[in-house]
């Protein structure tokens, strides 16, 4: 599930398009524990890894929410 909204970020000489919102991932019933642990670890790491483009300028921010959010 997802709820995303496109956003334009204006810089002094150009504009970049991106998005904000919430994405929910669910595991398949047959997914193994090792796979679930690996994905869980990567999801937590996303908050620290600086994913995306122009992270030094505040873009690419990720927050890990381990509990489901109403979408």
Overview of the molecule:
The protein is an alpha+beta fold. Helix content is 24%, strand content 25%. It has 1 helix and 2 strands; from the N terminus they run ββα. A two-stranded antiparallel ribbon has the order 1-2. A hairpin with a 4-residue loop joins strand 1 and strand 2. It is elongated and about 50 Å long. The mean pLDDT is 86.
Q: What is the tally of beta strands?
A: 2
Beta percentage is 25-35%
Query: Overall pLDDT, averaged?
Result: 86
How many angstroms does the end-to-end distance come to? 7 Å
User: Radius of gyration, Cα only, in angstroms?
Assistant: 15 Å
Given the C-alpha coordinates, what overall shape results?
A: elongated
- With strands numbered from the N-terminus, the spatial order across the biggest sheet is 1-2
Let me know the largest β-sheet.
2 strands, antiparallel
Estimate percent helicity: 10-25%
Q: Work out the helix count.
A: 1
Low-confidence sequence ranges: none
SSE series: EEH
Class by helix and strand content? alpha+beta
């Amino acid at each position: 599930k997802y709820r995303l909204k496109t956003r334009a970020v204006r810089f002094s000489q150009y504009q970049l398009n991106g998005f904000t919102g919430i994405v929910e991932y669910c595991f398949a019933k047959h997914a193994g524990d090792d796979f679930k642990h690996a994905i869980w670890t990567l999801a937590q790491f996303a908050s620290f890894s600086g994913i995306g483009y122009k992270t030094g300028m505040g873009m690419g921010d990720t927050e890990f929410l381990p509990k489901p959010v109403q979408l």
